[in-house]
Design the sequence.
């Protein structure tokens, strides 16, 4: 018997002829994560990946966290691998597994669920379940069988080898990062944008981030907060770049030339223009915002329409568009960004926030007014050229 980790994946399994490409990409990411811990092999095993330690006995406390949070992984199963698939071997291995992982004195209910890929095996799945379960019941004596709601569900899978496990630790599913191209995320220090980044990466996009820094109106602490948010997101999606764009000059230019009620619309348009310039350079395929429809004045349908035309060459993705605030907060807590986001460091100065923002701006009016702002395009391009690039 050998300790192993079975890795399950979800929607990748329903892909067609290109499925092997996505599988290989996911294997490469798993191998990269595990290479930091030691020598491991990751191989395909009939709809699963099999992870084996090539050095010492597998340490689940190190291995599981390195695999379970990878996008594309639906779940991981710590278990044992058995070479000999005879019924007697399966019975003894299953009993040894139960005695190691659950109280020897019993007092709990269990059931055995078997699956076999080799249809020439002398017993069918139900017969294997009954024989292995009966052996455990007779050998332990103090456990009960409950086929409907057992406290322990022991799984026996007969594939190229036999695998025995009882725990499935859920992952996040989705697609491996890089499968769906690259996107630039407009990252603020708030709650929404890091969650939008996480959701975009979950759909297989490699992500980079842009943050608009406006000293002296925004502090270094605000910038540090964004760096920490990117570090948190990178735990799921791997290494990324953060572009810190100095935006004070652009914001003051807009402030001096547009009505206060439309300030946010023009600022967001300027940010999309800047993000587009970065996307041109790094080969991104889309821009990503943390907007949720109707959450604030600049996120109404009309405002979104007026903002989007600032980036005509790229789709502007809004993964949170149908989420309400509590749903976003719940997800932020789950992925670990919430406590960072609520640090009390401003991400824009109050002088740039309209007291009475326009909630239904007309796109053609916004576009016409923007043309009257002197040197706006040049100012944005200058800011992007001076951006600091931080490797996360």
Sequence:
């Amino acid at each position: 018997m050998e300790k192993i980790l079975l890795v399950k994946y979800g929607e990748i399994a329903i892909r067609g002829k290109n499925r092997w490409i996505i599988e290989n990409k996911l294997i490469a990411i798993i191998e990269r994560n595990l290479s930091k811990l030691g020598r491991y092999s990751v191989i395909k095993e009939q709809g699963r990946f099999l992870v084996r330690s090539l050095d010492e006995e597998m340490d689940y406390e190190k291995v599981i966290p390195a695999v379970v949070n990878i996008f594309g992984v639906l779940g991981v199963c710590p278990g044992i691998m058995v070479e000999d698939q005879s019924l007697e071997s399966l019975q003894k291995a299953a009993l040894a597994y139960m005695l190691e992982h659950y109280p020897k004195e019993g007092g709990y209910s269990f059931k055995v669920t078997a699956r076999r890929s080799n249809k020439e095996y002398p017993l069918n799945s139900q017969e294997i379940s009954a024989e292995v379960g009966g052996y455990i019941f007779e050998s332990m004596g103090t456990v009960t069988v409950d086929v409907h709601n057992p406290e322990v569900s022991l799984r026996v899978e007969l594939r190229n080898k036999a695998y025995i496990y009882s725990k499935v630790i859920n992952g996040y599913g989705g697609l491996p990062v890089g499968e769906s191209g690259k996107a630039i995320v407009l990252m603020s220090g708030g709650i929404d944008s890091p969650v939008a980044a996480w959701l975009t990466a979950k759909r297989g996009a490699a992500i980079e981030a842009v943050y608009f820094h406006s000293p002296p109106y925004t502090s270094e602490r605000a910038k540090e907060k964004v760096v920490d948010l990117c570090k948190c997101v990178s735990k799921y999606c791997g290494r990324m770049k953060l572009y810190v764009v100095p935006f004070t000059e652009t914001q003051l230019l807009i402030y001096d030339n547009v009505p206060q009620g439309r300030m946010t619309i023009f600022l967001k348009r300027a940010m999309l223009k800047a993000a587009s310039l970065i996307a041109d350079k790094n080969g991104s395929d889309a821009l990503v915002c943390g907007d949720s429809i109707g959450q604030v004045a600049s996120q109404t349908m009309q405002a979104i329409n007026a903002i989007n035309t600032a980036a005509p060459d790229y789709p502007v993705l809004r993964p949170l568009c149908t989420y309400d605030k509590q749903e976003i907060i719940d997800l932020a807590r789950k992925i670990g960004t919430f406590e960072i986001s609520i640090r009390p460091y401003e991400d824009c100065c109050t002088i740039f926030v309209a007291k009475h923002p326009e909630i239904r701006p007309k796109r053609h009016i916004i576009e016409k007014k923007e043309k009257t702002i002197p040197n706006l395009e040049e100012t944005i391009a200058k800011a992007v050229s001076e951006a600091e690039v931080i490797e996360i």
